[in-house]
Amino acid sequence: MGEETEENMAAWLLGVEKLRIQPFNLPSLGPHDVKVRLKAVGICGSDVHHFKEMRCGNFIVKKPMVIGHECAGIIEEVGSQVRSLVVGDRVALEPGISCHLCQFCKEGRYNLCRNMKFFGSPPTNGCLANLVVHPASLCFKLPENVSLEEGAMCEPLSVGVHACRRAKISPETKVLIIGAGPIGLVTMLAARAFGAPKIVIVDIDNHRLSFAREIGTDEIIRVSTDIKDIGEEVIKIQKAMGSPVDVSFDCVGFNKTMSTALNATRRGGKVCLVGMGRSEMTIPLTSSAAREVDVIGIFRYRNTWPLCIDLLGTGKIDVKPLITHRFGFSQEEVKEAFETSARGGNAIKVMFNL
Fold this sequence. Notes:
By secondary structure, the chain is α/β, with parallel strands linked by helices. The protein contains 11 helices and 20 strands. It is globular. The mean pLDDT is 95.
């Protein structure tokens, strides 16, 4: 009798708040692919949207889908043409496979590829599974001093790094960050690593603001959800900064947060919209244009994993404190983990250890 092969299991999203661990058949291993045994998988806000609503923005779950896209693991098998990785290597996975053929891909802006196949973004299956097959070129070897959990955190950290690149953060840039959730926090860590000398972060939640203070922001301000308070809050922000705000990152994406960012930013400054809380917003764009405040957007990231791994390996960024909750890979724990992440509260990053 031959050796029995282990059945690959994954967390399938079957309906609203309905996750079930079921078999997941992998595609055959291509010559440039690797098979990875996942060891650390994080829960992202978009995963929670899929879990609670079966959609995130314009991405709608129409059929059962394996969830998850923040991951790291150990190489278990390599394709015949793979030379960069060997069995046993610890790797962080970049979750999006672009087409390599369109104009965006050819220009290097592959994150804008319309044919992107992205883990856990419908209809593409994700990575909350025992094993996945993925292109070797999107698997980045981790140095010995970077853990697999930190490797999985390269995905959210990449959002902050890409935002800081787009906004050209430097040692001369005073930064405002609106929103102290996971993406606001990694954007803060990235801005600091890029040299930002002063960072003010605002949020409606005292616990998250205290956490932001603990991991290195300079000033914290609690704000309200009432759009009428913007004028008063902008004065507080500018006073806390002590000088004009050069760049504001809106890591929420609501009318009030974007209006606050536009009003708080100096003439000739930049506002970078990172959060996607609303598909449409009413904001004071005309007055901002008259002050030549540039509005830029980001979508995911591109070419960020090597820098993220370097920042983690050299200790310039420490993401470990952001991992507040850990769960195993059982039916009960998967459900509890998503409910924990959805509740928010003191949960920042919820991580699965497989």
